[in-house]
Amino acid sequence: MITAAPIAAMLWENWRLTRVELVQRLGLGIVAASAALVWLDAGPTAAFWILITLHGMFFLLSILKLNGGRFMDGYKPGFPFYLLYVRPVPTAVFVSVDMLYEVVSCTALYVVSAALVGFAFGQHLPLFSVIVWILAFHFCYACVQWSTQNRVAQWVGSVVFSLPLFFLLKNRVASPLQVEFSIAENAVMGLIAVVSLGLTVVGVARQRRGDAIASVPRTAGSGGYPDWLVTLFRLPCPISSATRAQVWFELKSSGLPVLAIGLAVAILIFVLFAISVAVAPVRNAAVGIVVLSLPIVWFGLGGNAFGIRRKQGRTYASAFELTQPFGTAQLAGLKVLVRAACVLTALIAIGTSVWASSSFMSGWAPWFLEGKNASEGLLKLRQKFAHDFGGQTGYAYPALAVVASIAVAGMVAWQASREALRARYPRRLLVVQWLPAVWSLAIILLTLAVRKGFGPVPLVGEIVRATFWIFGAAMLLATIYLLWSGFAERVLTIRYACGALVISAAFGATWRAGIPAGDFIGLLWLSLVILMVGVLAPWSLNRIRHA
Length: 547
Prior knowledge:
The structure is a single chain. The chain is 72% helix and 3% strand. By secondary structure, it is mainly alpha-helical. It has three domains: 6-209, no CATH class; 219-373, no CATH class; 392-547, no CATH class. It is globular. The two termini are 31 Å apart.
């Protein structure tokens, strides 16, 4: 890097902060789009929307990298002024460089992904016809995020500009897959991009001079939730037991905010479905929130139970979290169980709201999407779910409840372990995370080759089965190593190990009772996953506590 050149220094800094995230999005887009082309009937259209979503609408990920972390970690709102350089640079220069880097890099990712996938599968995916739309979307988002330090203005502004642009693109997607904008629309979107750049320069200049409203950067809590949400629940800390005090801390810092968010989403779903009876356009938002809310609550709010933070290109653990007067196994168990209980309660609240709200669909007028009556299809889906769920035997309900609880706890433990290992072994974890994506891409390409007559038909199935056994053996060896290492380093206790083994056995037994048609080998494989994750959680937390 040439430190005497400010523009080169800024580009280098941006690249260093975002390179991993950009490569991950590129690989994920290629794999997901390839899977859509191979296994879905509407493959090209699905692949197009996957790539647009990853490289066009997930611009938030790159912005958060530059702002010093993630949204849930309390990243600093406004422009990332911590990216300082060796000599003074005009505001217009560094704003333009940062915005152009983000916009051009994300646009290039879409073009490269669409071109590679389209060439590999012989499909036509829109390339240059959507470039202006992607540029306008990115410029608008960067303007909203960087021109002001007001979080409310950022959230409202993101909705105000994103919805019109999304519906504009949706209305321009024709069948067969083709996207065309008129000259006037391209000119307007280009003007929007230029105006967004100008507004960003003005807003950042005010922040740089101190004319903007001052905002004190907050210190993120254990779960990274806003202070107003954490302090919303004023419960006294119990002093009779250290364990109760730790449970209180976990509930106060992250558990109760998760419950509050889940309850708010449940109420929002009910209100939207009620309004959609009279206002048809609201039905898109109601159904969309239902589809997105469950995975977001499960994976988004259920992650990072160990309170790992990410700021300005580095990942670390809170000193308060690391110096808790608990054994590592006990601390990990408390954190995972409290977060899992709160996430499960939030999921139950959302699921109950979805079931109660779906009754409003009987009052919907015919609602056509792509030539099909969506109202009728959703009602049939509701009736099918009621028939299948109501037809279960009496003992199947508690069995399913136990399976769901253990599955949520396992997912919370896995995400907490992943964040801890990312802080301790970032490069090794990156390689491990890429292995499933590379394997999936290889299977997709092999499936395509078999369909075209290259190789025997059972080849893909045999490779999948072989991979299943290899991965099962690897998990067994990893579990044995984690148990041996945990006892050797005095991380695990006999009580904790026996508890993890009992939970794993209970998962397999209840799954077998509730779903008797399941394969025994697959059930044994899932039980081994639960056991491995249960042992991995304290081991990974110990690695970062004693790094």
